Amino acid sequence: MRTGVKDFVERMPAPIRLRELIRTIRTARTQAEEREMIQKECAAIRSSFREEDNTYRCRNVAKLLYMHMLGYPAHFGQLECLKLIASQKFTDKRIGYLGAMLLLDERQDVHLLMTNCIKNDLNHSTQYVQGLALCTLGCMGSSEMCRDLAGEVEKLLKTSNSYLRKKAALCAVHVIRKVPELMEMFLPATKNLLNEKNHGVLHTSVVLLTEMCERSPDMLAHFRKLVPQLVRILKNLIMSGYSPEHDVSGISDPFLQVRILRLLRILGRNDDDSSEAMNDILAQVATNTETSKNVGNAILYETVLTIMDIKSESGLRVLAINILGRFLLNNDKNIRYVALTSLLKTVQTDHNAVQRHRSTIVDCLKDLDVSIKRRAMELSFALVNGNNIRGMMKELLYFLDSCEPEFKADCASGIFLAAEKYAPSKRWHIDTIMRVLTTAGSYVRDDAVPNLIQLITNSVEMHAYTVQRLYKAILGDYSQQPLVQVAAWCIGEYGDLLVSGQCEEEEPIQVTEDEVLDILESVLISNMSTSVTRGYALTAIMKLSTRFSCTVNRIKKVVSIYGSSIDVELQQRAVEYNALFKKYDHMRSALLERMPVMEKVTTNGPTDMAQTNGETEPAPLETKPPPSGPQPTSQANDLLDLLGGNDITPIIPTVPTSKPASAGGELLDLLGDLNLTGAPPSAPASVPQLSQPPFLLDGLSSQPLFNDIASGIPSITAYSKNGLKIEFTFERSNTNPSVTVITIQASNSTDLDMTDFVFQAAVPKTFQLQLLSPSSSIVPAFNTGTITQVIKVLNPQKQQLRMRIKLTYNHKGSAMQDLAEVNNFPPQSWQ
């Protein structure tokens, strides 16, 4: 029977050629038909491999590689590649090495069988065979192979053959990446490579030098002496005449120029002497390079990056920024985007030079490309200062009117921050924020409403003007809910000023008490109004009962109607307000008196006010809330109830949550296996009395938290992933040694801001923890700023501190969430 099969195989026709296979596969009309062809051909190739057919092995492996490129499995051809590599024929070796590079990698032990073959071929008499071996080793050589064959690679670096030297240099780059300790082996040969006239060898030698400098500070210091030689090579490239071998769009070897500029940037960083040596050549490149073609723009961009990264002269930096300014006028969108990104990185260090291109940057806000728009918006906010605030805000408000919805939230936040920092007057500040709320009220952050209310409250002389503007702004239009909320709050506070018509800043309007109540009742019944907005409106109507004299009965009627509302929050407020009218009418005027001026607490960021624009607290920022307003103690008690017991570590969330029950669940998820509580979650929680603060550190609020701060506690990096870095710094108090105050600093090294940033933490039950409000909810890109937040930890038993942290934020349009454990606290922080 075996004899019959052998005769049958011998009579089998020769396998089809690769070209015929490609033509056949391309005739397939469906994916299923293509798979059928591939399976049939794979079966024929397997049969040929089993029969040890040396005649057509090369052809079969070539076809297998083509199928691999189409995405079909081809692992069964790995050993056949090794057999081809061992062959003496160059055509077999070529396909064998190509197959090894495609089908093998260092994770598979099969590749170790190639080591001896590669070593033999590196010493082969034919340069093309040596080149194949170098390419393969440089592509997929493992650390073991690199150690075994580094000597042969180093020998080929010293050969006089330019073809082999350039391939050996690239192979040496791979060897250094795999085995950095072999770097010194290539040091003598690398120096000599820069004397080579062949551009290919020069290019690969610069790549090798760059790799060595990036991986070793010692090598970086050693190679700084080569800066004059690199400058000379670059100068020859610029000044050389036309060379058809190296010319690309009229520029001599732009690829080599870019590589040299990149290496100069590494060598000149933080080094005065090297930077001074390359200043002149960088100026020559910047002024002599042709910008009509993309090739010249690539060299100029690399030149700009080098100038900005080294210790260059101020005039040279201005020249670099002017080049980026010219890029902004280019028709190519990619070049404009690159220019905006580069200017955004340099605006902090060269603010005045970038300011000269402000008009061009603002024009980019009108670009059709959304990526360019976003970069232009970020750069425009970075350019805002006290001198140009009015003009820049005018342009940015115009942009806010016309931009796509995905830009409105970031643009509104940027305008709020800039206006708060550089506002020339309170009236301008109020007008600007009201304009934002009118234009993009649905997109503003949750803290916009309380911040504007605080601004209005503190601007006593502007109360009449503001309430009149807000009244006119919401007439018949309740679509912008944050604007309606602010308007309702202001009408409730200053409704008497609105009716009296005492506005001096603009022509007063004549409004009756009934017209004011009509507006607020319309807000209550509007389908656009959220539960929060209705809460604002009902509270405003109640406040007007002490400010209006002729409509008190109407107000009582409205309040009593909502005593049976299906909205539980509105119903509770209305019932409590009814009780004020009936049982506690003598207290009503005192409870509903006008809000005092609010002081802004800046110890832990811009504000420590309650930031609520969600669905649970419709009366924010009231230091004397009516009886229906949410009480801080009850909020703390609710949180303790959710966590299940008084021995829990109380955690104060960084932002308000709209659903307390789910928030408690998230906190329990965060605590995980830290065994935070001794009682089961279902155990009833005992509510702390008002006379006893729920957190032990609250008793320290009447005196400074720390007097003599212990120094010398090292900071730690608690988290570093995806560009987000969280650092902890520590402080201790001599007055209460059990208290550790941890200040977190969150920074962002990516190219986009991280928004809606929330940091939560949990500790075991033997500790107590208080998490104060953060300085912001946006972590700026490019490490241009940080978010700070304070954690107070009480550790009476002096046990080793452990903590679990939970991070949530939005980045590049995606919601990110991560958990991490911090166990590397320094002993000084808890002992």
UniProtKB/TrEMBL annotation:
| Membrane listed as a keyword | yes
Q: What is this protein called?
A: AP-1 complex subunit gamma
Give the membrane topology, semicolon-separated if more than one: Peripheral membrane protein
Record carries keyword DNA damage: no
Pinpoint the GAE domain residues.
711-826
Per the similarity annotation, which family is this? Belongs to the adaptor complexes large subunit family.
Q: For the region Disordered, give the residue spans.
A: 602-640
PANTHER family named among the record's database cross-references: ADAPTIN, ALPHA/GAMMA/EPSILON (PTHR22780)
Q: Which domain of life is it from?
A: Eukaryota
Query: What GO terms are given for molecular function?
Result: GTP-dependent protein binding; kinesin binding; small GTPase binding
Name the InterPro entries for this protein. Adaptor_Complx_Large_Subunit, AP1_complex_gsu, ARM-like, ARM-type_fold, Clathrin/coatomer_adapt-like_N, Clathrin_a/b/g-adaptin_app_Ig, Clathrin_app_Ig-like_sf, GAE_dom
Q: Name one GO cellular component term.
A: cytosol
- Can you say where in the cell this protein is located? Cytoplasm, Perinuclear region; Cytoplasmic vesicle, Clathrin-coated vesicle membrane; Golgi apparatus; Membrane, Coated pit
Q: Name a Pfam family for this protein.
A: Alpha_adaptinC2
